């Protein structure tokens, strides 16, 4: 099959081309760090047991992973046929046209920026709690600690991507090590009654103990970022081989980590007691489980890992956001100056500086207006989860559309017809559930939810209108949309 890069893409690459040498494991760790496994284990799993699928929480993670794996079959094949930089922005444009592509690119940029900028408030809180209450250090407002996270991510993101990848690898490896130690200790101690950790939560009898649909909705949000393996294409060594493998590896590792951790959490407190304990105090329930299995040492390590995990999210989200800014700038949708590539580091350094500055302004406004940091964090992260679902669903449609026309030998009935259809059923169901529960996702009132939903739609429409304007007035820019 002819996989020659189109001339338009080749010209674009010559003028705006990032460079890097990330390998398989560096890409996995860089992407998976965005998921914050330690934050999921300590902060999200108890909430899922309390409000989601209950005892069936482990299966929620398995079902979510299967849905995303089905999507990734066609997604990674399309990325081979269309080796354009730009991630979702490029793939959706190729399959569904420049108007939908640019609208999707805008809301994808919004989502990743919200994760980056919105996580500083949570970072300030968890860092302050660790330093003040655990390490008995000074007590400072959340934004003082958040400023340290901002400075660290701003500096690291300026340099070549391998530097960030090394930092993220260390942090993620440390997180997974603590999670594995926790799981092993619970198995050794025999769980709540000392008779062994039960695998009963995996039984079909418990799949529908709680709200199965809501459980899958919450679970699928914990896999965020797996798709950006394609976004790092230009900075990966041997992308044709590495990207598909890394994409499925991220999903598999996340599925195994979250499903096993939830089985262990349920087993450590007892199937008959865990839901009630989680309802009384979600965070306290997990802390009690960790403390009972590993004592103060493991509890302290877990608290430290939550802080480093949060920094890893910020750094990973910064890198992703900067590359979206870079790609939109390379197409001259945003000022082309932000598509500058550092001569030594091969990084999108101007886009990175712009991203850092924008986050500083947003968080500065949150401080000035006295916004509650947790309310702010919940709102922007809930909005991001919804946008991610929308983008993946739209990209799934684009995959089927594009591959039927251009897939050649890679457009098999299984990979580009059956898998996208099955993924569409799962993603569509979850998306409907997300829309119905949007106020819960953003943790606010119906009025707040309506305002945020209107904002998301408005940003998408802005992208469509921008494409229409360029089509009439700037044919050259219009032809570039989607890194075409």
Question: How would you portray this structure in words?
Answer:
The protein starts with 6 loop residues before the first helix and ends with a helix. The protein has helices spanning 7-15, 24-32, 37-51, 57-81, 88-96, 98-134, 142-158, 161-189, 212-220, 239-269, 274-280, 282-330, 349-368, 373-406, 413-436, 438-441, 446-473, 475-480. The chain has a single domain (22-480), classed as Amino acid/polyamine transporter I (Up-down Bundle). The longest helix has 49 residues, at 282-330. Residues 1-14 have low confidence and may be disordered. By secondary structure, it is mainly alpha-helical.
Salient structural properties:
484 residues; mainly alpha; Amino acid/polyamine transporter I; globular
Strand-helix topology:
Blueprint: H1 7-15, H2 24-32, H3 37-51, H4 57-81, H5 88-96, H6 98-134, H7 142-158, H8 161-189, H9 212-220, H10 239-269, H11 274-280, H12 282-330, H13 349-368, H14 373-406, H15 413-436, H16 438-441, H17 446-473, H18 475-480
Helix pairs in contact: 2-8, 2-10, 3-10, 3-11, 3-12, 4-9, 4-10, 4-14, 4-15, 5-6, 5-14, 6-7, 6-12, 6-13, 6-14, 6-17, 7-12, 7-13, 8-10, 8-12, 9-15, 11-12, 12-13, 14-15
């Amino acid at each position: 099959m002819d996989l020659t890069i189109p001339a338009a893409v080749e010209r674009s690459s010559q003028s705006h081309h990032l460079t890097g040498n990330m390998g398989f494991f560096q890409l996995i760790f860089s992407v998976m760090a965005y998921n914050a496994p330690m934050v999921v284990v300590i902060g999200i799993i108890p909430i899922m047991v309390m409000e989601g699928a209950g005892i069936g929480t482990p299966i929620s993670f398995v079902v979510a992973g299967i849905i995303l794996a089905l999507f990734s079959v066609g997604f990674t094949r399309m990325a081979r046929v269309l080796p354009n930089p730009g991630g979702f922005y490029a793939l959706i444009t190729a399959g569904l046209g420049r108007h939908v592509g640019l609208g999707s690119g805008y809301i994808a940029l919004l989502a990743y920026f919200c994760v980056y900028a919105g996580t500083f408030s949570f970072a300030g809180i968890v860092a302050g709690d660790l330093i003040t209450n655990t390490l008995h250090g000074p007590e400072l407002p959340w934004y003082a600690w958040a400023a340290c996270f901002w400075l660290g991510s701003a500096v690291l993101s300026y340099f070549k991507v391998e530097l960030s990848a090394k930092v993220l690898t260390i942090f993620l490896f440390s997180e997974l090590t603590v999670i594995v130690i926790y799981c092993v200790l619970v198995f050794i101690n025999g769980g709540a009654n000392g008779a062994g950790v039960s695998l009963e939560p995996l039984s079909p009898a418990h799949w529908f103990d709680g709200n199965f649909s809501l459980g899958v909705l919450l679970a699928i949000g914990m896999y965020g970022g797996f798709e950006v393996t394609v976004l790092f294409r230009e900075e990966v060594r041997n992308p044709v081989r590495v990207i598909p493998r890394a994409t499925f590896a991220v999903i598999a590792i996340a599925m195994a980590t979250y499903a096993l951790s939830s089985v262990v959490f349920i087993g450590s407190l007892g199937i008959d007691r865990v839901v009630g304990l989680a309802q009384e105090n979600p965070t306290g329930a997990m802390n009690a489980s960790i403390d009972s299995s590993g004592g103060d040492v493991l509890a302290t390590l877990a608290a430290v890992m939550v802080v480093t995990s949060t920094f890893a999210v910020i750094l990973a989200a910064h890198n992703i956001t900067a590359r979206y800014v870079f790609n939109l700038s390379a197409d001259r949708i945003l000022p082309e100056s932000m598509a500058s590539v550092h001569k030594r580091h091969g990084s999108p350094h101007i886009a990175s500086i712009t991203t850092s500055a924008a986050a500083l302004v947003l968080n500065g406004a949150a401080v000035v207006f006295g916004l509650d940091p947790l309310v702010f964090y919940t709102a922007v992260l809930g909005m991001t989860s919804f946008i991610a679902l929308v983008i993946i669903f739209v990209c799934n449609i684009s995959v089927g559309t594009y591959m039927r026309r251009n897939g050649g030998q890679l457009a098999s009935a299984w990979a580009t017809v059956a898998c996208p259809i099955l993924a569409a059923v799962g993603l569509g169901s979850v998306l409907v559930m997300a829309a119905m529960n949007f106020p819960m996702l953003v943790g606010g009132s119906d009025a707040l939810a309506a305002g945020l939903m209107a904002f998301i739609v408005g940003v998408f429409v802005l992208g469509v209108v921008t494409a229409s304007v360029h089509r009439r007035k700037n044919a050259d820019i219009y032809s570039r949309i989607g890194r075409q």
